[in-house]
Structures are given as structure tokens and as C-alpha cells.
Amino acid sequence: MRDELQTLNKALDALLVLAQHGGEMKASEMEAELGISRSSLYRIIGTLRNKNFVEAGPQGTYHFGLSMLSLGLVAGSSHVVDTLAKSIMERVVRETEETVMLTGLVFPHAMCLARIESPLSIRLSFEVGKLMPLCAGASGKILLGTLSEAQLRHYIQMAEERGFLRACRVDAPKLLQQVETLKRDGYVQSLNEVDDGAFGIAVPVLDRVGKYRYGLSLAGPAQRLRFEKFLHVLKQAARDLSEALYSSTGGDRSDAAN
What we know:
Elements: H1 2-20, E1 24-26, H2 27-34, H3 38-50, E2 54-56, E3 61-64, H4 66-78, H5 80-96, E4 99-106, E5 109-116, E6 131-133, H6 138-141, H7 149-162, H8 164-168, H9 172-185, E7 188-191, E8 198-206, E9 212-221, H10 227-246, H11 253-257
Antiparallel strand pairs: 1-3, 2-3, 4-5, 4-9, 5-6, 7-8, 8-9
Helix pairs in contact: 1-3, 5-10
């Protein structure tokens, strides 16, 4: 049973890696990313191909199959969080004219769950379903608040070993301090961390007991940053989304969608 669970875990990792790279990768790239042998990779790919989750492409590449397309269509049309968030996010864009995103934890990454772009000519675009680092940018860092102290230290150790922190240009003590600050202040701000000349502001979406569940963020060119206004709009939107998702009368609607 343990071997079967490990195989399942690796198969899910393979799908997430494919998603992170736009849905298509070479076997050699997947092998390096997953840290497994070529024979193990091909066993996993064989299982995924049998269920039409993955298909073979030209020049040794693999891409998502029809089963993934089917799941994506169902998720895109019925995910409760996305449905409830849309009107609130549209209001944020009307009030700020910047791109707004809803992110969730897909350990050890952040995933863009929903996005509405700025109507202005210069804008930042993040694809829905894209995986982003937890250690760079406000949209990712805010989700570090979902982790317990033990989970956070495990993530930092893993991120150091895998080179995530080096790529994010941050060290462990600084990242720990940033998490303490975001939990104290209720928001995180970034500048030039993901894109040069770009800002990010993110706040948590909390459940009924005050636990971080999602991140709601704004991003745009640094010259358009109006920090006080943007933070006020985001915090109000996060409170409204929390109420919609976790109101005592409606129950936990996000879990009902998972």
C-alpha cells in the first residue's frame, strides 16, 4: 500500500510539473524536475497515458491528454471559489484599475486560481493555473501564512535544498522575518521581485477561525502604485470573500468544491 501511495504521489507531482511548464515537457526535463530515474518516470507516464491524462508528442515530449481537458472544463465551470470570487474581484479592478488575482497553495508552490486583468494599456498578466514560487512576490508569499511553524521550516529547508530561495534572491532568516511581518500586519508587499518595475500587494482570505485559506492580490507597474488605497480595497474585498465562503449560515463552501 505504501508503494502504491508513493507512486500516486509521484504521478500527481508529474501532472503538477507539466502544468507549471505550460502542459508540455520533454521526458528528460520531467526526470530532472521530479528527481526520479528514467525507468520510474516511464512507469508513471505509462499509467497516466493509459487513463488519457498524458499523451506523447513529437521529439520525446509529453502533454496533457483528454482526461485533463475534461477535468479542467468541469473545474472551470463549477468551482465555487471562482464563482463567488468573480464579482468581488471585478469590483476590485473597477476601484483600482489594476490586475487582481486569487491564489491558493499547491505545496510547494502558489497557484493562480482566478484573475481579472487591468483595463489599462500597461498591465501584468498571470495565467490561471500557473504555479508560482512561494518565496517571491506578494501573491506567493501571502500563502506562507497558511503553513504552521513546522511546515514553514520544512518548506524553507526544502526550498534551500532545491535552490528555490537562491532563485528568489532571499535567504531563510529574511523569509522567516517576512512571514512574521505579514502575519502581524495582515498583508505583504513586493517590488521588483517577480518582474522589474512591478509592485504586488496581497492580503489573506481567512476562514471562520481566522486561518489563512487563499491570497487576494493586486499587481501592476510600480509608477501606478497607490498603496493606501489599494490596501484598503483589497482588505475589504478579502473580508467580503471570507464572508461569502465561510459564513456561519452557508457553511464552508470552498471545501464543498474540493
